[in-house]
## 1
Amino acid sequence: MRVFEALISDLAISFLDRISKNVHDYLFANQKIEKICGCKDFFPSEDRFLSLKDELNKPEGFYMAEDRGEYGDFQTNMPLSKAVTQVLLKKNIVPDVVIEPTCGKGNFILAALQSFPSVKRVIGIEIYEPYVWQCKFNILDYFLSHPDANKPSIQIHRFNVFGFDFLELKKQIQDSNILIIGNPPWVTNSMLGALESDNLPQKSNFKKKRGLDAITGKGNFDIAEYIVVSLIRLFEKCNGWLSLLVKNSVIKNIVYEQHNNHFWISDIEEMNIDSKKEFDVSVEASLLFCQFGKHSSQQCQVTDFYSGSIINKFGWKESFFYSDINADGLFGNIDGKCQLEWRQGIKHDCSKVMELEQNGSGYRNKLNENVDLEEDLVYGLLKSSDLKTIVAVRPKKFTIVTQQRIGQNTDYIANYPCTYAYLRNHLDLFRNRKSTIYKGNPDFSIFGIGEYSFKPFKVAVSGLYKTFHFTLVLPDKKPVMLDDTCYFLGFDDLISAVAIHTLLNSDVVESFLQSITFSDAKRMITKDALMRIDLRRVLDIVNSETIVKQANTTIMSMGEKMEMVFDDFYSAVNQKNLQLELF
Ligand SMILES: C[S@@+](CC[C@H](N)C(=O)[O-])C[C@H]1O[C@@H](n2cnc3c(N)ncnc32)[C@H](O)[C@@H]1O
């Protein structure tokens, strides 16, 4: 049966039924209930107590589950909640106070009540009223069926976690051993923006990203990350532990920021769970564990939640951040600053108009329209999926490069009447682009464009794929562009491009990238990671014979006419000129 939209057991119903028939004052009812289950202020108001009677007499109606996307609602099942408290017990954790910051239906609270018999106080916070009731009913049911169990003082607050007075709570409990346990909402601030939800902390740019970074997503964050960081900031110097289920990206960010924050958290551990099995979602998630109040650690041990086996350790070593600190390789030797500037490909957010395929002598766009264009502004376009080969030769797609540099006035396009007419016909699609980077910029603006985009030879890599494979991009009569899922280096001559392409595909770069990137990140390869490759040091490590051999394979795959280039390349490496010419 459901009461206040929450499921309630027969045991709890008959108990509440008796209370509602025999007791007329809600404060007295609250006292009785607190005696049974330790739960304070069970009925927050007289009104709620009076409506209980109606609810109990109501025939069970049709129950319609609310769409709870904006609340990142993934309730933790009881076996997993219990398994988490068992893991904590194995670590000899004995809390006096348990805090569940977004307690939902309360499975973590129940697991804590069962696993930590010495706990004296429990505080749960939850925004959604039916869950608050569900949590209270579950607690009541537990103590009705376990009357001899230890009864701590329990408060389940219906409250927004972003407005809850944790500071006041801290004053009351700071001498206790505190355990923060739970599973904060799985939702990002940008998802909430899309849902037009206000379930956000007030200071939503908490990453303090400015300008383009804030606009293009670097300021995007998980609500869970905000909650975890706020709790760590507040409780770092107390005695206690934090044990929360979160996405791996949240843990990575917290450990990454430790370099600046120096929070007093130690024994940091990421215990990987199977979120498909537990929550039926395809997200890499783990139990984040750490201890408060001892010292500040900047490394995180990764283990398997179920078996406890050690997977790896990530975090800071000296002044570098690694996804696998103990990776066996020479990566330390090439970690530095890339001598060349990595660039991201073109961003236009208007693929319906800007992505074209050749159709006879003209083009066809993604709206299935046949398009006639002057060739001047049309360039070949490669996407991540085109970067699987060693050499990319003929692009299948094309794009219109409307600017040669960011912010350039686009009125000049009128000199190309067909192109201009085509773009103007779709002006509404350009003007409706969501990203604010286009606001206040000329019509048809693009980003990720500059002198570097027009370099004839490129070495490119996809940011989306889970491989470390670099592709040599050759011109197709004119330079070929890459889309914004790709990163590249541009070159004026083929020899330099082939040399760098060879270096980047070496084992040493692969193992280095493996040790600094996270395979569960949306973009595994980022500009920041690529900028850490010190090409000069790679050149020192990879011997010239290997370079020539690899380069040979690359050049051969382009066809015989490259033989002369190979000879040039070979002599350049042999004369040890390469290093000088490249850097
Ligand atoms: C991922 S669920 C986990 C619930 C519970 N901790 C568990 O492990 O089963 C996240 C919970 O956070 C609650 N929530 C979302 N936004 C909240 C807010 N601003 N304040 C308090 N609770 C919130 C949701 O209603 C939901 O119950």
## 2
Amino acid sequence: MIGCMACDLTAWRDELHGGEIGRTDAWVVEHCVGPLGVGTLIIKPVRHCVGLWDSTDDEAADLGPVMR
Ligand SMILES: [Zn+2]
């Protein structure tokens, strides 16, 4: 999605310091950008979502194993 920094980082349209750490079909694990800096990790959906309430049942079921 144009104008979404999270999606730009996921799609490598913007520089991601530290790179991608892990990925499933639904989720990607990356270093956080911004004030928390490299070393702080973020789990975010592969597709554009505004919040967890936008997750499909399959995405929600996959989140626990990713967090573990
Ligand atoms: Zn997005």
